[in-house]
Amino acid sequence: MIKSFFEEHLHSDEEIRLILEGSGYFDVRDTDDRWVRVLVERGDLLVLPAGSYHRFTCCSKNYIKACRLFCGEPVWKPYPRGEESDKMTARAEYLKQMTAAA
């Protein structure tokens, strides 16, 4: 299942993860579309905005246990990077926020 998380994707809702055990890497895109690697370990809380492209992989220990937190109704569906996801409202809102922050 971990291999499916390595495909670059976005969600229409925030992704909030609490790392319970183990460690791994979230790769997220910066404003210049370059990868930024974030190490997450036990006790870390990571919030990825809706519409942000990201992926996940384990580290050399090959073990992680995480809890995904939701506000309201859970939204699990990943949208692989491509023409469809680039046109999503969540992506447009995310890009607007990133441009305003720059």
TrEMBL record:
Keywords: Amino-acid biosynthesis, Dioxygenase, Iron, Metal-binding, Methionine biosynthesis, Nickel, Oxidoreductase
InterPro entries on file: ARD, RmlC-like_jellyroll, RmlC_Cupin_sf
Catalytic activities: 1,2-dihydroxy-5-(methylsulfanyl)pent-1-en-3-one + O2 = 4-methylsulfanyl-2-oxobutanoate + formate + 2 H(+)
CC cofactor: Fe(2+)
Enzyme Commission no: 1.13.11.54
Listed Pfam families: ARD (PF03079)
GO MF assignments: acireductone dioxygenase [iron(II)-requiring] activity; metal ion binding
Lineage: Eukaryota, Metazoa, Ecdysozoa, Arthropoda, Crustacea
BP terms from Gene Ontology: methionine biosynthetic process
Protein's name according to its UniProt entry: acireductone dioxygenase (Fe(2+)-requiring)
